[in-house]
Specification:
Blueprint: E1 3-7, H1 24-35, E2 41-45, H2 53-63, E3 67-71, H3 77-90, E4 95-99, H4 101-105, H5 107-113, E5 119-121, H6 126-137, E6 151-155, E7 158-161, E8 187-188, E9 193-196, E10 201-202, H7 213-217, E11 221-222, H8 225-239, E12 241-245, H9 255-267, E13 275-280, H10 282-287, H11 292-297, E14 300-308, H12 312-318, H13 324-336, E15 340-347, H14 354-367, E16 371-376, H15 384-389, H16 415-436, H17 444-462, H18 469-472, H19 495-528, H20 534-537, H21 563-575
Parallel strand pairs: 1-2, 1-3, 3-4, 4-5, 9-12, 12-13, 13-14, 14-15, 15-16
Antiparallel strand pairs: 5-6, 6-7, 8-9, 10-11
GO cellular component, one term: cytosol
Keywords: Iron, Iron-sulfur, Metal-binding, S-adenosyl-L-methionine
Protein name: Anaerobic Mg-protoporphyrin IX monomethyl ester oxidative cyclase
Length: about 600
């Protein structure tokens, strides 16, 4: 049984300007497959090697696999679909498999536009992939495909989804095979060191409206910090990795485990060999103010903060428990701890104006982060905010859903002007940093790091790859009226996907109505015994004359979860482990 895994050849001028990133999914699938006895596994990184379709076709013909698998986030979905189409053209009898977050939630769309795909893996892939490959190897494919949980496939004109597979409960039991990657290809440009992307946890206990991580991973699970450091130590000693970024959306959620992780790194002397960075929340930085020097001692040198937007109105929309002053203070605390801090701004919603874009620049100047990134709002088609935006989403060319292309057209400006004003922010911010900050301030390491970041920006600028500027024909303010984002307007949402969305919306509406009726009944029952129900007394929507409610935490709560609450959540996740995956009858992923 020969398996070929291919990483799609998609580039957008976003995160890849900082380096070539190792596709961790390949290692995390290959490891369990090896344990199950499948050793003949090959990998082609079409993204890093910048392979065109002819080169991919040649590789498929050379390797002659029985199974071809690939993955896709939303902007790489068409590349992934095309890879599998090429595989079926060359090897009609091979089994073409697609995984990843986009296919998980948009499987009806994908199977409508790419009927040559034999199976979609919905959700975490490790256990489902082993079950699927075993069925193929034993000759039970496709006869037993309806018995494999977590799949979607076409059966004639019908699109079928088997019951959702349980999540992987014991993450430490997954042993990724990092040997499958050619590590000399994966370089972090600012430090000119090999880079890795391990993870400490999966899932998130919060439910930000613009995010999909909590939907995909479904429940929050955290690994043993010692096991994570074992993996990092292997990457350092065996593969010469000198920098890593934790893949977690927010690795500091569980403060106790994060501290243990740092302690283990220090105990093994790893900060002398490898440095690292994370994404986290402003509130976590403020919570851990006294611990920041300790985190720096453990090798943490870069923190990317989701400050998201300059206007507090937008922070409320994104459902994040942060304020403008908190953002400013968190950035200052990180700088004082000698940690490079990057502020992330989301721009390009329908209410964006020249004034709000200028405000983000002024705030970046005031807050003084080391790095700033203005990302175009990208409405993931499976996020809650996408549904709320409704008819404001006009573009369904998912290849452009990449953080650098304005999907939403602001009411007050066209997309070309939006791009130009964002580029103006970048020009001013980094010109000042290059002339007056990076060469002169901070420690020797900080100076080296920031100059390396500047080098990455300049390289991408010269090559016209930054923000995909070359492809959209942007050369400066004089060209803003000639920018062409080349949207493929023939791309539409498939009827099967629309029907699925409408069905889900109907179910949600019925659920809300049922809950409202129960609350009303509870209030009446309380009234009969002289007790006022606080919950039922609250209006379902605040009158227009009342001030808006204060923003809540990501999950809708008033504050971040305590260590004890997080431990209980993780323990509950383990307790729900399902040793008999065919016993439950779920029809959709959570």
């Amino acid at each position: 049984m020969r398996i070929l895994l291919i990483h799609p050849n998609y580039l957008s001028g976003g995160a890849e300007i900082a380096g070539s990133w190792p596709p961790a999914w390949v290692a995390y699938l290959t490891g369990p497959l090896n344990v199950a006895g499948f050793e003949d596994i090959h990998f082609v990184d079409a993204m890093t090697d910048k392979m065109d379709e002819d080169q991919i076709r040649a590789k498929i013909k050379e390797i002659q696999p029985d199974i071809v698998g690939t993955t896709a986030i939303t902007p790489s979905i068409y590349k992934a679909e095309r890879i599998l189409e090429i595989a079926k053209e060359e090897l009609p009898d091979c089994v073409a498999i697609l995984g990843g977050i986009h296919a998980t939630f948009m499987y009806k769309q994908v199977l409508s536009e790419a009927p040559w795909i034999d199976a979609i893996i919905r959700g975490e892939g490790e256990e489902i992939m082993v079950n699927l490959v075993e069925a193929i190897h034993e000759g039970r494919w496709p006869s037993d495909r309806d018995q494999i949980r977590g799949l979607a496939y076409r059966d004639g004109d019908q699109i079928v989804a088997t019951p959702a597979a349980p999540t992987v409960k014991n993450l430490d039991a997954i042993k990724p095979n990092w040997d499958i990657l050619e590590w000399h290809k994966y370089i972090y440009v600012p430090l000119n060191k090999r880079v890795a992307i391990p993870n400490m946890a999966r899932g998130c206990p919060f439910t930000c409206s613009f995010c999909s991580q909590w939907k995909f991973w479904r429940d929050y699970r955290i690994r043993d910090p010692k096991a994570v450091v074992d993996e990092i130590e292997e990457l350092v000693e065996k593969h010469d990795v000198g920098f890593f970024i934790l893949a977690d959306e927010e690795p500091t959620i569980n403060r106790k485990k994060f501290i243990q992780f740092c302690e283990e790194l220090i105990a093994r002397g790893l900060p002398d060999k490898v440095q690292w960075g994370i994404n986290t929340r402003v509130t976590d930085v403020m919570r851990d103010e006294e611990l920041l020097p300790f985190y720096r001692k453990a090798g943490m040198v870069h923190v990317s903060l989701g400050t998201e937007a300059a206007a507090q109105l937008k922070l409320n929309l994104f459902n994040k428990e942060t304020t403008i002053e908190q953002n400013k203070k968190a950035i200052r605390l990180l700088r004082e701890a000698d940690i490079v801090v990057e502020a992330q701004f989301i721009v390009g919603l329908e209410n964006e104006t020249a004034e709000t874009l200028e405000e983000t620049y002024r705030m970046a100047e005031d807050w003084k982060p080391d790095l700033a990134n203005w990302a175009m709002y990208t409405p993931w088609p499976f996020s809650t905010l996408f549904e709320e935006l409704d008819d404001k989403v006009e573009i369904f060319d998912f290849e452009k859903y990449n953080f650098v292309t304005p999907i939403i057209k602001p009411e007050a400006m066209d997309r070309g002007e939006l791009l130009d004003r964002v580029m103006n922010n970048y020009r001013r911010f980094y010109m000042k940093k290059a002339l007056f900050s990076y060469p002169w301030k901070g420690t020797g390491y900080r100076r080296k790091y920031l100059l390396g970041c500047l080098k990455a920006f300049l390289k991408a600028g010269v090559q016209r790859s930054f923000y995909d500027l070359g492809r959209v024909n942007y050369w400066g303010p004089q060209s803003k009226g000639k920018v062409d984002f080349a949207f493929d307007e023939t791309r539409k949402i498939a009827k099967a996907q629309w029907d699925d969305w409408e069905s889900a919306a109907d179910k949600a509406a019925r659920k809300r109505a049922h809950k409202a009726s129960l609350n009303s009944l509870e209030g009446k029952m309380d009234d009969t015994v002289g007790v006022v129900s606080t919950e039922s007394a609250q209006p379902t929507a605040a009158p227009a004359t009342e001030p808006a409610a204060a923003p809540k935490a990501c999950g809708g709560g008033d504050q971040q979860m305590s260590d004890e609450q997080l431990e209980a959540l993780a323990n509950a996740s383990v307790a729900e482990a399902d040793p008999q995956p065919k016993a439950r009858a779920e029809s959709e992923p959570a």
